[in-house]
Amino acid sequence: MRMPTHEPDRDDPGPSLGQLLALVAPGTLDIVVAPRSTAVPVTGVALYDPGEEPLPRGAAGLVLLAVGVELASSGAAGVLRAADRAGAAAVVMRHNGREPGAELLEAAARGRTALLSRRPEQGWTEVLGRLRTALSSHRAPDGAHGAGPPVAGLRLGDLSGLANTVADLLGGALTIEDPQSRVLAYSRLDHEPDPMRRLTILGQEVPRWRVAELRESGFLQALWSTDDVVRLPADGRYAERLAIAVREGSEVLGTLWAAADGRPLAEDAADVLRTAARAAVPHLAHHRNGGRAAAGAREEAVRALLRGDVRAAPEAGIAADRPHAVVLAEVSTADVPGADRAGQRVLDGLALRAAADRPGCVTARSGRRLYVLVPAGDGETDPARALLAAARSVTRCAVFAGAGPVAAGPAQLPASRETAELVVRVLRERAARAPGGGAPENGGAGGGGAVSAAAAHHEVVPATAALRLLDRMEPFWAVLSGPVHAMVEHDRAHGSAYGASVAAYLDASCDAGAAARRLHVHPNTLRYRLRRARELFGVDPADPDVRLLAEVGLRLAARPGSGTEQR
Question: Which of helix, strand or coil describes residue 294?
Answer without folding.
Answer: helix
